[in-house]
Amino acid sequence: MKFAFTEDQLLFRDTVRDFLAAECGPAQVRECAAGEGRSPARWAKLVEMGLTGLTVPEAQGGLGLSLVDGVLIVEEAGRAALPEPLVDQIAIAAPLLAAFADRTDVAEILAGIAAGTVKLAAGHPLDPFVADAGDADYLLLGREDALHLVPRGRVTVTAEVSVDPLRRIAAVDWTPGNDTLLSADPAILDRMLDLGGLAAAAQGLGLAQTMVDLAADYARTRQQFGKAIGSFQAVKHHLATVQVAIEFARAPVYKAAFTLAPRDISHARVAVIDAAAAAARTAIQVFGAMGYTYEVDLHFFMKRAWALAGVWGDRHYHLARLSRMVLSDDAALGADGTFADK
Amino acid sequence: MDLQYTPKQQAFRAEVRAWMAAHVPQRRLKSYDTAEGFEEHRAWERVLNSGRFGMVTWPEALGGRGADLIEWLIFEEEYYRAGAPGRVNQNGIFLLGPTLMEYGTAEQKARFLPRMAAGDDIWAQGWSEPGAGSDMAAIRTKAIRDGDHYVINGQKTWSTRAVFADWCFGLFRTDPESSRHHGMSFILVPLDTPGITRRPIPQLDGEPGFAELFFDDVRVPVGNRLGDEGQGWNIAMATAGFERGLMLRSPARFQETAKRLVQLYRRHEARVSPGVRDLVLKAWMDAEAYALNTYMTASRLIAGGKIGQEASLNKIFWSELDRSMHETALSILGARGELLASGLDEADDITRWLKGFLFSLAGPIYAGANEIQRNIIAERLLNLPR
Ligand SMILES: Cc1cc2nc3c(=O)[nH]c(=O)nc-3n(C[C@H](O)[C@H](O)[C@H](O)COP(=O)(O)OP(=O)(O)OC[C@H]3O[C@@H](n4cnc5c(N)ncnc54)[C@H](O)[C@@H]3O)c2cc1C
């Protein structure tokens, strides 16, 4: 029993964190939002670092890492509110496709993901929109318990506007065919939802921490009544309360990345949705009117968190799913139940 | 990351489980806040010690098993799973024990630790005073040097189990001219020393769970001082360090409560409003989160890491979790929830919820009130100005 990341995993995380701090700081996110919304230069660097191939099998030119490695990177993408669609590639598309790598077309696509030449979007039937559908080369889409791998040319994309200026969402119209079918395994769409839920949860952790950090920075400098507002106890306690919620959402996310068990993913998902919502509402309160503006960077992180709260199964979906697993006769509950349930 | 128990850990779990099945008293012991219950619990400590299960993390020479923190968590899981009695000597074994191991002389360790492990000495803590609660540096009780003794005068309060305990440890001002956190020493005091008056204080449930202690020219040998004279504050802070942060409340306790809450909810599901389900799920999630967080901390410490501000984050989390679980249970119980004692079959469970609820209200107050913990998180973790 060892619930810890390796030195290597943490080192890799730190490298990515430093990279994103340099290349995707709040000012760069703002710049991106004011311009094209995506930075091809940054994407090229992400590819160069091997990040797009993080979870692509080594045989297809990827790093062949697991989601335990991946979860830390996805958390960093959340921390930075990374605009480019890295997360859905490494945490949803590649892990799903890797199981079908013996198909030559799939192997080629995986190689393309690793090389940064092919982009995938993923959409679950529960969600009305698909993120980054317009720019994708292929889409992983579900219909009637089956998962399809659909070339961009076979779908009609109608762009919608997200509250998050950096999310590109779209309604996707398509017709499944035998030639698009990837898997009819009745569990495949649940797996897709689990991967998406984990990805959203890990990003939410990072987003929540950034919101607290931004608010704490502001509270150290903004003066009222002759002192930094961060010296006021009401402000301190608001932020401390959120920090507690973040800390206790963290371990469930990491465990979920290891087990990929539905119970763990739903737990992580709900804990992070709540922590990130609390972080957003607390951070805006600490910023005062500044926080209500488009001028201050906070809103990029709040909006990403709000958007991610609803996708890949919202709070209600995951609570309902949890209730079926936890409030049942065969649930592993109690003091020895933590690692007993798979 | 490897979330599976090793064969050795599984064997340890099996051993604890079998031992508990054979030894945990069938009948719930009387409350340790009563004279009779206190002695029943002392007897249980002796039984535990006879199986070398009194304090598994202690070295073998002291009756322990030299267990690491993961094994300690396994032990606690089996302990709570078996419904074993509360630890009447928890102030001794969880707080003073580790402090003695770090700061005690060889003579002090030999003198106090085996008796503590055997339940021969049950310990109370003496920090708080009428004028010093959250602000512990405001304590005034003096211990003035007179030859090879200290002469103690003053008053301690809220001392848990001090009504029946054998000893107390705490902070006393050995430099009468000192103020704040200077000039204090950590002293161990036998509670039957002449000059000590104990006034039981009934708690919310009516039982004398803590006491006021009056010291009137109480003479204690200098050899009962832990560490150097004047070093008391630092030692007290170390006591509040990792052992306390991790060991004061093990996750198993809350996971068993969450399990009982799930069972209670399922029995009453048909009549309670739908929103209660989410509160029950939240209780389960939070108890799991606390366990997972503790496993992460334990893994980090085993690998040589240091404890940070986890103690403050943990304190807030478990105490608020415990309170909300009990509030939810009472809301499910409705009108039956006011039952403190009765002949009904289910009364034992109801009484447990009610008493647990009363006690859960103390969680956010003792061991450093949650407001103080929030100050610590804000100032030391988030670097907000004092
Ligand atoms: C069940 C129980 C068992 C206990 N057992 C022991 C024991 O064995 N030994 C022992 O020595 N003590 C014991 N205590 C006492 C405990 O340590 C104190 O209650 C605790 O330190 C708080 O002190 P106080 O009660 O004087 O409250 P106060 O310090 O008066 O605080 C009252 C309220 O004011 C708030 N407050 C105080 N200062 C601040 C601040 N700076 N910022 C914001 N809010 C603040 C507190 O958070 C609290 O909400 C026990 C208490 C309880 C309830």
From TrEMBL, chain A:
Q: Which intervals hold domain Acyl-CoA dehydrogenase/oxidase C-terminal?
A: 192-322
Which one Pfam family would you cite for this protein?
Answer: Acyl-CoA_dh_N
Q: Does the keyword RNA-binding apply?
A: no
User: Could you tell me which residue ranges the Acyl-CoA dehydrogenase/oxidase N-terminal domain spans?
Assistant: 6-116
Keywords (alphabetical) are: FAD, Flavoprotein, Oxidoreductase
Among InterPro entries, the record links this protein to: AcylCo_DH-like_C, AcylCo_DH/oxidase_C, AcylCoA_DH/ox_N, AcylCoA_DH/ox_N_sf, AcylCoA_DH/oxidase_NM_dom_sf
Which family is this sequence assigned to? Belongs to the acyl-CoA dehydrogenase family.
Q: Per its record, how is this protein called by name?
A: Acyl-CoA dehydrogenase
Q: Which organism is it from?
A: Zavarzinia aquatilis
Q: What is the lineage of its organism?
A: Bacteria, Pseudomonadati, Pseudomonadota, Alphaproteobacteria, Rhodospirillales
From TrEMBL, chain B:
Give the source's domain of life in one word. Bacteria
Domain Acyl-CoA oxidase/dehydrogenase middle stretches: 124-218
Q: Which residues form the Acyl-CoA dehydrogenase/oxidase C-terminal domain?
A: 230-382
| GO CC list | plasma membrane
What keywords appear on the UniProt entry?
FAD, Flavoprotein, Oxidoreductase
Q: Where is the Acyl-CoA dehydrogenase/oxidase N-terminal domain positioned along the sequence?
A: 6-120
Pfam families for the chain: Acyl-CoA_dh_1, Acyl-CoA_dh_M, Acyl-CoA_dh_N
* Alphabetical list of InterPro entries matching this protein: Acyl-CoA_Oxase/DH_mid-dom, Acyl-CoA_Oxase/DH_mid-dom_sf, AcylCo_DH-like_C, AcylCo_DH/oxidase_C, AcylCoA_DH/ox_N, AcylCoA_DH/ox_N_sf, AcylCoA_DH/oxidase_NM_dom_sf, Mycobact_Acyl-CoA_DH
- Name one molecular function that GO assigns to this entry: flavin adenine dinucleotide binding
Cofactor requirement: FAD
Member of which family? Belongs to the acyl-CoA dehydrogenase family.
Give the protein's recorded name. Acyl-CoA dehydrogenase
Q: Which organism is it from?
A: Zavarzinia aquatilis
